[in-house]
Amino acid sequence: MFQDRPPQIYRALPSPGTRRNVWAALMPRRRRALARLGVPLTAACIDLAVIVGTTLLLEYVYAYATEAGVPASSQLRAWRLAGLLALVVLSVNVLRGSYTIETLLDRRPHLQRTASLWLAAWGAVLVVSFVTKTTTDFSRAVAAGTVLLGLPALMAGRALTVWLVRRLARPGSHSVARVHLVGYEEDVARFYAGNRADALGLRVIGTSYLRRPDADLAARQAQMDEDLELAVSVVRFLRPDDVFILVPWSEPGEVERCIDAFLRVPAALHLRPGTVLDRFPDMQVARVGRLSGINIGRRPLNLAEVALKRAFDLAVSLIALALLAPLLAAVAVLIKLDSPGPVLFRQKRYGFNQQPFWVFKFRSMRAEADAPFRQATRNDARVTRVGAFLRRSNLDELPQLLNVVKGEMSLVGPRPHALAHDRSFERRIALYARRHNVRPGITGWAQVNGLRGETLTDADMEARVAHDLHYIDNWSLWFDLQIILRTVVSRQAYDNAF
What we know:
The chain has three domains: about 25-170, no CATH class; about 175-295, 3-Layer(aba) Sandwich (Rossmann fold); about 305-495, no CATH class. It is an alpha/beta fold. The protein is built from 17 helices and ten strands. Residues about 1-30 have low confidence and may be disordered. The chain has helices at about 5-10, 20-65, 70-95, 100-105, 110-130, 140-170, 185-195, 195-200, 215-240, 250-260, 305-325, 325-340, 385-395, 400-405, 420-430, 460-475, 475-490, and strands at about 175-185, 200-210, 240-245, 270, 285-290, 290-295, 345-350, 355-360, 410, 440-445. GO terms for molecular function: undecaprenyl-phosphate glucose phosphotransferase activity.
C-alpha cells in the first residue's frame, strides 16, 4: 500500500524510531511555513520599494532641477504620493492573493495584471486628490513621470519576483506544498506520467496505494478499511500540507470512504476527478442561489467589463470616424474612379451569440452580380488596383467603425468569418463556436500574430481559433490597447494581407 515510488522522493525521508528522526521529519514543515511567509513579504517589499523609490527619485530630480535643493515640502509631497500608490497596489494584491506562491507560479500574464492595477491605482489617486482638494499639492511633472516610469519599473520588479520564485520553487524546496497521494496503482501511475512535480510547484512526499476492491461487498469494505487505516497512519507521520485523493469519481462509495478517513488528519483534502478538469485551471466551487456546483468557466466578460469595453469602443470609434473623415472620403472617391460598383461591400456575418449582422468594408474587388462567395487568394484576379492597396494596408476594414458604433462589433475581438466558413469550421474544429461569446472585432490577437488571410487547412484555422480563445480568456483593457497598437505598428499585422 505504501510504496517507495518514485524512489528519489523517499531517499530523503527519515526512518522512524528515534526522536531525532521524528524531529527531522517535522522540521521541513516549520521551514516551509517560514518560506511561504517570506515569499509574499518579499514580493510585497519589492513592489513597495519600486513605487517609493521611483516616486522619490523623480521628486528629488525635479526639486534639484527647479529649486536647486530638496525642501521638506517636496519630501513630504513625494512620500504622500508614494504612500497612496503603494497602499492601493499592495492592498489589492493582498486581497486577490497576488503574492502567494501559487499565483506567482501561475502561467497567466502577470504583466497585464500589473499594468491594469497601476492604472487603477492612479485612478484612485486622482479620485482621492479631487475629493480632498489636494490636486494642486502634487507636481504635474513628477506625477506624469511616475505614471510613465513607474509602470515599467513595477513590471520589472514583478518579472524579477516571478523569476526568483520559479527558480526557488523546486520539488526539494521547503517553500512548495508537501503533497501526499492516495489512489489505485493505475491512477497514481497516470498522475506521475502526466505531471512533473517541478512544473506543478509542489513536492510529493508520499504515496499510499489502495487495492482494487473485491467483488464481495463485505470483503471490499474490510479491504478498503485496512488500506485506509494504513494510509492515514502514514499521513499522520509524514504530516503533509495536502492530501490528493486520486480515486475516480465513477466510484462514489470508495471516494466517500476516503473522504471520511482523511478528514480526520490535519491536512487540506483535495479530490482529483481525472484529467478533464486540468483544462480549466481557474475552476472553483460556486453557488448560484442555494445550488452548489463546480464552476469551470465564467461568462467571457462580466457586466462591468462589458460596460468598460463598450464605452471604450464607442469613444474611440466616434473619435476615429471624426478624425478619419477626410481619408474615408478620399478612399471612396478612389474606389469609384478605379472600377464601377458600390463604395462599400456588405456581407452577412455571425456576431455575438451567433446573431447575424451586415459587416461593412470598402469594396476591394470587382463587383460581380450573383457571384458565389469565394475566399480571396494570393494574386486574386478579382482584386482591383486600389483594392490591393487597401487590403495590404488594412484600410478596407475602416468602415467597420460603423459596425462598432451600432454595437454589432468591437474594436478588438475575434474576426468575423463568412457564414459558409462558420458552418464548415464549427463542425470540424472543437470550441470554434466559442469565438461568438464576445463581439467580433475589427482587429484581434490572431491578426496581429500574422494569422489572417486564406485558410488552406484545418490547422490554419485551429491556430487562429486558439489565439481567439486566448484573447477571450485573458481580456483586459490593457490587452485591447496592446492589440490596437500592434495593429498599426507591428509588421506581423500586415502578413498574409492580399
